[in-house]
Amino acid sequence: MTTLLETTSWLIDIPSETGSEAPIRDAVADRLDQFPQTPVADSLVVGEPGEGTILLVGHLDTVPLQGDRGPRVEGDRLVGLGATDMKSGLAVMIHLIEALGTGKLAGVFYAGEEGPLSGNQLAPVLDEMPGLADAGAAIVLEPTDREVQAGCQGAINATVGFSGEAAHSARPWLGENAVTRAGPWLTQMHSRAPEERIVNGLVFKEVVSVTTASGGVANNIIPARFELNVNYRFAPDRTVEEATDRLQAVCEGADSFEVADTAPPGTVDIDNPLFAALIEVSGAPVVGKQGWTDVAQLSQAGIPAVNFGPGETTLAHKPGESVRIGDLDWAYESLSAVLD
């Protein structure tokens, strides 16, 4: 019998950076070929979801390689690209399906999570398989630090601009520098502290961050335009529209404000009987998800969902990514006890 460690190592050994998920989708399909399957683009649904089905949900892709792919064992940890985000979660999904079957269980292995939301294939999978919307609940096996992480934050990216007037850099008084004109606003943003917001008894820290900046056309020209991307992570009790209004108020003082993209938050749903049982069996503390996951898209489809999987969020997307080997068994045993 293949162990969880062996399965995770096998998955890590299959390159699956965003946009190149077909090989790992096919490998998972071959591994689980005794169960009903429906491929959707580079994604795969294992089982025949319908009313009351419990969904196990995980993305197949990883961020680009940084250093060695792995896999290799170092002490009590398995090292390799995707070890924590989220091939360890995929391994747990595979073993649960192999052990429990797909009578009341279905696995959703989807592509494109690590890229822009427009390329995330969970939405097309939900659209093409109407039975998924009738599921009783879903567990997203993202890394959760041995916690049950409920809901998730929404996200907005906006382009904020400052305007000036171009001039020769030898005679700057003949123009107005758009970059330095943004200085007071940037100083205020730099000192902006996270704001705690309580949703269903759980803390979410709302943060606004400047993430990119660009301006100027040449080294000897005073820049006439300076643009920045502002990223806002907001609590699940705000709508996208409410959060947009708030972000625009925060960015007051800039000359222009334009929303580039948005992602809705995920509902905090810890009273669901399945999730309550998981909390009790695992002994895991319950916290609000600081960040965005596909709990949001499942919530939008009317499917109660929670984040629960092996691995540590602080190691996701980092060089030398790893997972505690003991986390694999802990996550599997907790879910098996609840789902069996």
Protein model, in words:
With 340 residues, this protein is of the alpha+beta class. The chain has two domains: 4-152 and 266-339, Aminopeptidase (3-Layer(aba) Sandwich); 154-263, Alpha-Beta Plaits. 29% of the residues lie in helices and 27% in strands. The protein contains ten helices and 18 strands. The chain has helices at 4-12, 22-31, 83-100, 122-128, 178-181, 183-190, 240-250, 273-282, 295-300, 325-339; strands spanning 37-40, 43-46, 54-59, 72-74, 77-79, 105-110, 137-140, 148-150, 154-163, 167-168, 195-199, 202-215, 221-222, 225-234, 256-263, 286-288, 305-307, 322-324. The strands form four sheets. An eight-stranded mixed sheet has the order 1-2-6-3-7-17-8-16, with helices on both faces. A five-stranded antiparallel sheet has the order 11-12-14-9-15. α1 (4-12) packs across α3, α3 (83-100) runs parallel beside α10 and α8 (273-282) crosses α10 (325-339). The longest helix has 18 residues, at 83-100. The protein is elongated, with a radius of gyration of 22 Å. It starts with a helix and ends with a helix.
Gross CATH architecture of the largest domain: 3-Layer(aba) Sandwich
Q: Please state the overall shape, judged from the principal axes of the Cα atoms.
A: elongated
Which homologous superfamily in CATH is the superfamily of the largest domain?
Answer: Zn peptidases
How many domains make up the coordinates? Answer: 2
Largest sheet: 8 strands, mixed
Let me know the number of strands.
18
CATH-defined fold name of the largest domain: Aminopeptidase
The Cα radius of gyration reads 22 Å
Segments where pLDDT lies below 50 for 5+ residues?
none
Could you say which structural class the secondary elements and strand pairing correspond to?
alpha+beta
